[in-house]
Amino acid sequence: MLARVRGAVGRTATAAGALVLAGGLGNDVFTLPGAAAAAVAAGVGLAFNLKVVRAPESVRWTAISLYAAPHMGCAVILITERLTDGTAATLVQAGGIALWTAATWMLRPGLTARELTDEAVAQELADAAKAVETTVEPAAPVYASEAARWWGETFAIEGGIAPGTVLLDHQQVGEQCIALIIGTQKRGQPVPDISKPGLSAVLDLPEEQIDVGPVPGRGAGVRLLVLGQRPVAEAEEELLDSDAAVWAEIAASAMPGVELVESNTYEMPKELT
Fold it and tell me: What is residue 136's DSSP assignment?
């Protein structure tokens, strides 16, 4: 609605300006009042178009000059009409009036100035939003546990031994052994090859105490890492020691020089007892 009102006022002012210019061709009485009216109209128009006056500095004076151009042109033509005389000058002035009227009516400099201001404001807002986006730091990753944080900040960093991976689970197998289940951050991608020498160097752990392998029943998107010296069951150790001691006594008399390499325990059938 406001745009229509401004358009109607602008067209009316253009028609009034054309009449004043045409009247100034034959009568000097239109010169000073007409030039003063053009200046006042420019000032009043800018006062009601604060958007143009407060436009970004990059386009402010361009927009103000564009808005005031028809008024300035009208005043210049009026003064020229008074300073010049003769048929040729009158014809030139009539052509100037026609050109001024057509250009002002069709180009609508006031509307163009407002559109130029709107574009500059939109560009500044876009630049400001882009600047804010570039200055906002990415959110820190959220870890499910301190162990997951340790893995993420030590191995899963960019350029690390296992980038793009997360610690899914871990379990203390023994005093000097821990098992880790590693997965990928993006579903459907395999866990990258994890370097044993790299883990050995970072953890200061012998390579023979590092095992990297699949998780039983799972795909390549997860991997099992066993770190440290695997514990040996106490029962197996006791059994091995007991068997070795018995065999050593047998071998000393019956089979000298023979070692016990492996032993298995079977349940004696009742028929043999």
Answer: S
Helices assigned H by DSSP within the chain? 2-24, 31-47, 50-53, 60-83, 87-107, 109-135, 146-154, 196-203, 234-253
- pTM summary value: 0.45
**Cα separation of 201 and 182, whole Å?**
19
**Segment 154-193, tens digit of pLDDT:** 888 888 888 888 888 888 877 788 888 888 888 888 888 8
What are the contacts of 67-73 at 24+ separation with CB within 8 A? 67/42, 67/109, 67/110, 67/113, 68/42, 69/109, 70/14, 70/17, 70/100, 70/103, 70/104, 70/109, 70/110, 71/38, 71/39, 71/41, 71/42, 71/45, 72/38, 72/42, 73/100, 73/104
Check if the beta carbon of residue 131 is closer than 8 Å to that of residue 113.
Answer: no
The answer to whether 143 and 186 are in contact (CB under 8 A) is no
